[in-house]
Design brief:
The complex is a heterodimer of chains A (about 110) and B (about 120). With about 110 residues, chain A is mainly β. Chain A contains no helices and 9 strands. In chain A, a hairpin with a 2-residue loop joins β5 and β6. In chain B, the strands form 2 sheets. In chain B, strands 2, 4, 5, 6, 9, 10 and 11 form a 7-stranded mixed β-sheet that branches. In chain B, strands 1-3-8-7 form a 4-stranded antiparallel β-sheet, with no helix packed on it. Chain B is built from no helices and 11 strands. In chain B, β7 and β8 form a beta hairpin. Classes of the chains: A mainly beta (about 110), B mainly beta (about 120).
Amino acid sequence: QSVLTQPPSVSGAPGQRVTISCTGSSSNIGAHYDVHWYQQLPGTAPKLLIFGNTNRPSGVPDRFSGSKSGTSASLVITGLQAEDEADYYCQSYDSSLSGSWVFGGGTKLTVL
Amino acid sequence: EVQLVESGGGLLQPGGSLRLSCEASGFSFDNSALAWVRQAPGKGLEWVSGISVNGEITHYADSVKGRFTISRDNSNNALYLQMNSLRAEDTAVYYCAKVADSGSYYNDYIDYWGQGTLVTVSS
């Protein structure tokens, strides 16, 4: 059971918009710690997608955006493309666990 | 180009020990915090351990505390993870990771990942 809760799967057709949620609590996201997002394509290492809640590293398309409110964060992908099919993970810090970064359980995005 | 290359994985029996290594290049190693993250087969990511720039501050997930030790050698651009008293549930791909400095440990994140090394613990 992950400290940060993500839906196990989401899906959408090419060109559509999908949202992946990341729900935490008052000891992590709700405590104003930043949320970061990673994309893991099949058979590869994770890659940084969003950092500091809303920021994209250079090279990440602006179709990907992040937001945070209260004890939750969201990753939005617009103009869905086949190559977006991957696992997505949120990450933050949790003050109830000593020194601990925490990841969400991951969301599998399927492009129909 | 940032490169992180893990080595040292393998198959071993429960109760055994293993030392993972990570060779880094392409960035200022002695100015970067580092971490290990693992992924059990078919499962999600789990943060394992982190180490500060000079190696004086370390953090561990509760699941490995007292069994794993993270260390670094800034003169050789290397990161290590000594794993003792291994259990079946430690079976995973272990990723070496470069930590981006956000100005606060609590808001740091991983900006580069290695390709991982597989550790299998089984009798």
